[in-house]
Amino acid sequence: MNKTELLVNDAARLNYGLTDRATVLALGGTDRIITSRLQGGQWSQIHPGVYLIDVTPLSWHGRLRAATLAAGEAALASHRAALVLWGMEGISSAPLELTVPVGRLPKPEGVIVHRTRRPIPPAVVEGIPVSSAERTILDAAWALPPLIVEQAYETSRKVLTENRDKLENVVKVLLEEETMEGEGLQAILNAQAGKESEEMVKTEKPPKPSEPAGESPEKPPAQQPKPEPGLAWEAQSGLGPDQTS
């Protein structure tokens, strides 16, 4: 394995095991290397120009990331997929759904693609480019009942309210230093988490008396494993991973 392949593999490990042609070329690779790895079975093509460098099947998140890679740099997860990605309440599964600028851009197979002339504020959640939380709620209203959209809105409002101190600390640092590395952001989040833990310890209630001899507390019912977002949606809608609507 040469240096280029090592660099490509390292980058793919941080990207759901995925790479694309542009990344391979940027790291010093060639189309010849791509063809060789595909023919040898080391890589598999997910979409034209998008490759999986892993033997593990792609999760819903991985398939969504592959779709954004295949649809172009400006592609963002949006609508129902963005709602699930942001972790908002209302739905727990969604089809692969993107928004891209108007133009002759690729349309990945098995993906719902919306086109827009308006710029969309981008964000990144779990390594996947996605529409902003505000835009996600607006887009969701196009395809979901008002009650679900209201639940999603309440979730986003709650998250912002509960994390207000963290956001204010981040803004303060950005105003003072104009930039922030990932380690600095993590330090702020860890410091805030430490304060919250201390407050929980102070307000923690004393433990309940132990159960009388001969009696054992009831065990809580076993929780069912949470299904993959995409798999649950496909089961409900009848759409498979390679079908579009």
Q: Can you describe what's shown?
A:
The chain has 245 residues and is α+β, with helices and mostly antiparallel strands. Among the domains are: 3-52, no CATH class; 69-144, no CATH class; 164-198, no CATH class. Helices cover 48% and strands 12% of the residues. The chain is built from ten helices and eight strands. The protein has helices at 3-13, 21-26, 31-40, 60-70, 79-86, 133-143, 146-162, 164-177, 182-202, 229-237; strands at 18-20, 44-47, 50-52, 76-77, 97-101, 112-116, 122-125, 128-131. The strands form three sheets. Strands 1-3-2 form a three-stranded antiparallel sheet. It has a three-stranded mixed sheet with strand order 4-5-6. A hairpin with a 2-residue loop joins strand 7 (122-125) and strand 8 (128-131). The protein is elongated, with a radius of gyration of 22 Å.
* Average pLDDT rating: 75
**Number of helices, counting only DSSP H or I runs of 4 residues or more:** 10
| Overall morphology | elongated
The protein's oligomeric status is: single chain
| DSSP strand content | 5-15%
Specify Rg, calculated over alpha carbons: 22 Å
Order of helices and strands: HEHHEEHEHEEEEHHHHH
Total strand count, please? 8
Please give the alpha-carbon distance between the first and last residues: 42 Å
Question: Helical proportion?
Answer: 40-55%
Uncertain parts: 234-245
Q: Describe the strand arrangement of the main beta sheet, using strand numbers.
A: 1-3-2
Largest sheet: 3 strands, antiparallel
| Structural class based on helices, strands and sheet pairing | alpha+beta
